[in-house]
Structures are given as structure tokens and as C-alpha cells.
Amino acid sequence: MKDNSKISSAVIKRLPRYRRYLYDLQKKNVDRISSNELSNLIGYTASQIRQDLNNFGGFGQQGYGYNIQSLYNEISAILGLDQEYKMVIVGTGNLGQAIANYTHYYKSGFKVAAMFDVNPKLIGLRINDIEVLDYEMLDEFMKNNTIDIGIICTNKDSAQEVVDKLCAGGVKGIWNFAPTDLNLSDDIALENVHLSDSLHSLAYYINRNKQKDS
Amino acid sequence: MKDNSKISSAVIKRLPRYRRYLYDLQKKNVDRISSNELSNLIGYTASQIRQDLNNFGGFGQQGYGYNIQSLYNEISAILGLDQEYKMVIVGTGNLGQAIANYTHYYKSGFKVAAMFDVNPKLIGLRINDIEVLDYEMLDEFMKNNTIDIGIICTNKDSAQEVVDKLCAGGVKGIWNFAPTDLNLSDDIALENVHLSDSLHSLAYYINRNKQKDS
DNA sequence: TAGATTGTTAATCGATTAACAATC
DNA sequence: TAGATTGTTAATCGATTAACAATC
């Protein structure tokens, strides 16, 4: 595998999508596909698909195309999905609970080790067999456990403080659902899910389409 | 305002973020800001900020900068946030409920008119004063109500069918949380929130950082 | 007016697409 | 082998950044 350190984020964002399509093809017992056929399915140009994949090595074979099983495995490995990740969720409101459920049912490599909240009504509950702990215990918990990913489901005002604690506690990545931008050292990965921003873009396109109609 | 129909999506994705920062500045009673100061806050170059804003018109003033209140209002209007949107949520599991709560508390212009599910245990419940209706009634509901946005919180297998019904029912936009790609006419806006893909990118960057360390 | 800062054009940079030689 | 299709280089396209004249 080549040096991955300077591959553009545009490429990385497409990898999970390739993987989803390859997963479905695998389920259908298809065993090979050309960049051209994949292009028709997924909507990227065949040229882009070949360029993207060649960032990581030559996974195809001239005259044949790509073996679906092995390409799926390669992409999974590139993304690091052959590993396990221990996570904590901070903020156990509806969204925190939804994420806990989601990762519980769908994402086998991603384990929620604990959830934290300040609300006494939530502390002590078990959600999908995951204990909700007092936020006061976060520092101690981080000291006694190796946690890879911190998931921020708090409001925007608490988010930075929580992130600071999690980073001090040794997480390698932050999955942020709070509607704010976070400051953290750039050796810790950060992925934002800004639901507000997403909804606001949607509103823009709704109106743009309206204008086109009239 | 200029013709917005060919503004790149890179620009549009930045608008909600500008708006967030302007909102905070407004709260702090700051009344003007230069592209340079805003650049220091938000992290885009001053040049990009000026380019972005000038896609929609000259909102600044030479020698002065931008008036925060009025720029905030302009961006809100560009995004269509001066309007109301009626929404339905299909799929009332944890995620559907979280979205209902979220829009209920934070997003005053976005009203959830109804929620739908196939699960008899959920049908009839009220969540934040929003009724959970039988999915069987979706078509009829859409006939009798004007709904702007359909929110997909189903599993991936049901998503396309739901979208087809919503589009037939006249929605102008789809906010998709199901982990699949949807087909719809391009006069209907589509915004995807692919949580899987997001988590998978995070995993990639965690591993890339690990490699750099060693 | 002088200084500041925009609006806008030009230059650069990066990402996508096209083309084709290599090769299975 | 001949046909198909990749891997990779070159060309194009688009987005970002730099520069500066316009102007408040």
C-alpha cells in the first residue's frame, strides 16, 4: 500500500460509498465488475473510480476488472474497518440514545463502552446494555479504560469542555453531533455531523428549485 | 440578488457555517466585521469569504467591512430560513424521535406535521405533541396536507418506497438518514446524512494518524 | 482627505476527466 | 492470440488564493 498520508479528503469521502455498493454486489453473488459497470451503478466516472482506487494500489486486473470480494476487503482495510473501536457517548438525550442504538445494531466493529450524562434521571439507566454514568465520572473512566472514539451528543455550549476531557483521556477520534466547531490537536481525528447545516442546505436547494419552476 | 442557479455546492455548504458564526457575533453585540477578522474566526481565507459572499451580491462596504446583523439576515434569506417548512418523519425509531425533538427545540421554522411508522407499538403515541400515524395513512395524509420536506428515518430497504410516496405526495425536499442512495427527480432537493459513511471516514483518519505517530 | 477594506480580475492550485499504452 | 480493461500520464475543468483598483 502506498503512502496514504496525503490523499485528498474528497477521495476518502467516496470510499465508504464504494464499500456500500460492493457490499450489495457481494450479497448478490456477483464476483467481478469493471470500472465502467461500477460507474453506471454508483454514478462516479469510470476514470475517477480507477484514479481513486489507484491511490491505494492496483486492485484490478487488465481485461478482467475488479474482484468484488477482494476489493471490498481492501477498502474495508483501508478504512480501518477490520479493527475494533471502543467508544463513549457523552450526552444521553434522544440523539445520544439513537447513536447508541445505531452502532449497537449496525456497526459491529464499533462498541459503545459507556454513556455519560449530567441528568440524574438518566444516570444509572441501561440503554442496549450500556450503562449511563454520571458525567462527573468521565475523567476517571477515561483513566481506567482505553477509548478510541468520543461521541459528542451534548448541546453546543458543553461540547468543547467535553472534547477537552476526552482528548486528555486519550481518544484518537471525535464524532461530533453538537452544532458547533471544535478545537483539537490535529493528531486527533474529527468528524462533524452538523445536522443544522445539513437542513439549512436542504432549505437552500428547495428554494432554488422553486425559482426554476416559476 | 444574482442568478443563484449555478453556484457551486462548495459555496452553499459554507453558508450555514457563516451564519452560525454571525449568529454568535450578533449575540455578543458586535456590529461589524471585516473579511479578515471573520477569516481568523472561521478558518476560511478572507479572499474566499469575499468571493463566497459576492456570489449573491455586495453585502459589504469598502473601508468598513460587513454589518453583522444585515449579513446574517441576507444569508438567512439566501438559505430560505425566513420561511416555514412543514415536514413529515417516516420511521419513528430512536433516530426519528431524536430528529423530531431536535427540530422541535432548535429549528423554529421547521415544523413536524406528523410522524409515521409501521410498528403498532408506536402508532398513536405523541412525541413532542406530534402524532405517530400508521404508515398506511401516509398517502392519504399527503393528499390532505401540503408538506415541504420528507425525512427518511427508515431502514435502507424501505427508504426508496417511502421516498416515492413522499415525492408523489408533493414534497420539495428529502432529508435522508437511511444508509442508502435514493433515486428521485432532480427538481426535488435531496440532502443525505450518511452516518455510516461519516463513521467510516473517521475510522480512516484515526488509523492514518496512528501511522504518522509510529 | 487618508486609511481601510471591499469587489473583482488574474494566477495558482487541485481535482476530475480523457486518452492510451501496458497487460491480463 | 485478440479483446477487454486496467493503471497512469496528460489535458481540462473548477475552486481557491492572490493581487489590486475601486470606493467608502
UniProtKB/TrEMBL annotation, chains A, B:
Q: PANTHER family from the entry?
A: REDOX-SENSING TRANSCRIPTIONAL REPRESSOR REX, REDOX-SENSING TRANSCRIPTIONAL REPRESSOR REX 1
Instruction: Output a single Gene Ontology CC term carried by this record.
Output: cytoplasm
Q: What Gene3D superfamilies does the database record attribute to this sequence? A: NAD(P)-binding Rossmann-like Domain, Winged helix-like DNA-binding domain superfamily/Winged helix DNA-binding domain
Question: Could you tell me the gene encoding this protein?
Answer: rex
Origin superkingdom:
Bacteria
Does the record's keyword annotation contain Disulfide bond? Answer: no
DNA-binding region per UniProt: 17-56
Question: Which species expresses this protein natively?
Answer: Sinanaerobacter chloroacetimidivorans
Show the NCBIfam families listed in the entry.
PRK05472.1-3 (NF003989), PRK05472.1-4 (NF003990), PRK05472.2-2 (NF003993), PRK05472.2-3 (NF003994), PRK05472.2-4 (NF003995), PRK05472.2-5 (NF003996)
Question: What InterPro entries does UniProt report for this protein, alphabetically?
Answer: CoA-bd (IPR003781), NAD(P)-bd_dom_sf (IPR036291), Rex_actinobacterial-type (IPR058236), Rex_DNA-bd_C_dom (IPR009718), Tscrpt_rep_Rex (IPR022876), WH-like_DNA-bd_sf (IPR036388), WH_DNA-bd_sf (IPR036390)
Say if the entry is tagged with keyword Repressor: yes
| Binding of NAD(+), residues | 91-96
| Protein name stated in the entry | Redox-sensing transcriptional repressor Rex
UniProt cross-references to Pfam families, sorted A to Z: CoA_binding, Put_DNA-bind_N
Q: How does it assemble?
A: Homodimer.
Where's the CoA-binding domain?
80-181
Q: Which family does it belong to?
A: Belongs to the transcriptional regulatory Rex family.
What keywords would UniProt list here? Cytoplasm, DNA-binding, NAD, Repressor, Transcription, Transcription regulation
Please provide, alphabetically and separated by semicolons, the GO molecular function terms listed in this UniProt record: DNA binding; DNA-binding transcription factor activity
